[in-house]
From TrEMBL:
E.C. no: 5.4.99.-
Protein name (database record): Pseudouridine synthase
PROSITE patterns from the UniProt entry: PSI_RSU, S4
A GO term from the CC aspect: cytosol
Organism: Clostridium cylindrosporum DSM 605
NCBIfam families per record: pseudouridine synthase
Xref: SUPFAM superfamilies: Alpha-L RNA-binding motif, Pseudouridine synthase
Lineage: Bacteria, Bacillati, Bacillota, Clostridia, Eubacteriales
Similarity remark: Belongs to the pseudouridine synthase RsuA family.
Domain of life where this protein originates: Bacteria
């Protein structure tokens, strides 16, 4: 990476405005590779130089990739005047990267949500031509049948006339209330709920389990998150070229 001005690097990392980090630097609070640097216009390589500000090592990188176990009741947006967003759940040191959710889960849906500031990957994962599979678990009011499986396999017609792509429905339990898993290859608004409406049933609970090669880490409690591992990232990049 090209060398960048120290004040730009520190401001990008959320240590203050350019003016503020200039003042901090001038006061002798910043070292680069062990030497105090007072001139914030000094050029540094943020990936290779060891930059310490007020005793804290600056861990510079451009992108952040987060897997969140989204809780119900929180919206998949970056900001909202009234409602809590998934970004509000991030720690300051993660939020400063200004990441955004990849697609949306409904407010009452929980489960796997990818959050990143890599706009290019975000775009590719959502692109209809990539058909990235998404797997959900759902509780259903009503008996889910073999004929529903066949309907989903053909593609169903939603309330607005849109014919969905084929989806794979698996019945885990069938009764007055049923438990199912479904894999869809697109992401229309309220898609799973509307697919069940089209066969006369109601989703009462919805959880996303997988998106492409990513599986929800069961160690993550509702509302918790972690960064993706290198293996997860590699798999994600290769599924959305
Ligand atoms: N389908 C839905 O109906 N809701 C979601 O949140 C995701 C898929």
């Amino acid at each position: 990476m090209a060398r960048e001005r120290l004040d730009k690097v520190l401001a990008n990392m959320g240590y203050g405005t350019r003016k503020e980090v200039k003042a901090i630097t001038k006061s002798g609070e910043v070292t680069v590779n062990g030497s105090i640097v007072k001139d914030s216009s000094t050029h540094v390589n943020p990936y290779e130089d060891e930059i310490i500000i007020s005793g804290e090592r600056v861990n510079y990188r451009e992108y952040i990739y987060i897997m969140m176990h989204k809780p119900p009741g929180v919206i998949s947006a970056t900001e909202d005047r009234n409602l809590e967003t998934v970004i509000d759940l991030l720690e300051y040191e993660d939020a400063i990267f200004k990441p955004a959710p990849v697609g949306r889960l409904d407010k009452d849906t929980e489960g796997l949500l990818l959050i990143t500031n890599d706009g290019d990957l975000n775009h590719r994962l959502l692109s209809p031509k990539n058909h990235v599979p998404k797997k959900y678990y759902a509780d259903i009011d009503g008996k889910v049948t073999e004929s529903d499986i066949a309907e989903f396999k053909k593609g169903v017609v939603l309330d607005d006339g849109y014919e969905t792509m084929p989806a794979e429905l698996t019945i885990l339990e069938a009764g007055e209330k049923s438990k199912i898993e479904v894999v869809i290859y697109e992401g229309k608004y309220h898609q799973v709920k509307r697919m069940f409406e089209s066969v006369g049933k109601k989703v009462t609970y919805l959880k996303r389990l997988e998106m492409g090669p990513l599986k929800l880490d069961e160690e993550l409690e509702i509302g918790e998150y972690r960064e993706l591992t290198d293996e997860e990232l590699e798999a994600l990049f290769s599924c959305a070229k």
